[in-house]
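User: Show me a protein chain along with its predicted structure.
Assistant: Here is one chain, sequence first, then structure tokens.
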Amino acid sequence: MIKLTGHIIIFLLTAVCSALSSCTPGACFEETNAYLKASFYSNVTKEKKTPESLTLFGLNKSDTIYKKKSGVQPALFPLDASAGSCTFIIIINNVTDTMHIVYSSYPHLISKECGYTFYHKLDTAYTAGKEFYIYKNSENITTANEENIRIFY
């Protein structure tokens, strides 16, 4: 009787340990937001140049992404996966322009722990005025640390 009870206890402990280890959700340590990444360059020297002051907010949006922030390089632009375009007001060193971004979105599985996010494919990025010039460097907007556009000011 004692041998049978010992075997049952070992079996139950093994079953409980297996169940706990297989059902424990893992933590997500990966980036889950795909931002358009914009680096800043001098319009004169064509070399990378960090703005002294950057203010960035979405047109008709209440949230400000950057407010007179210094040392921003690169800037991260959040895109709306339910829309095909976004418009931002960008102020670099007290010079204002409007930037339009046209893109398409598609779901992407990051991992079992992190789930899905939306990646984007950049179609065009341009400014309404002549204050800044936009150069498209990479059309794939993902969670990777990759420059998508260059903003010359």
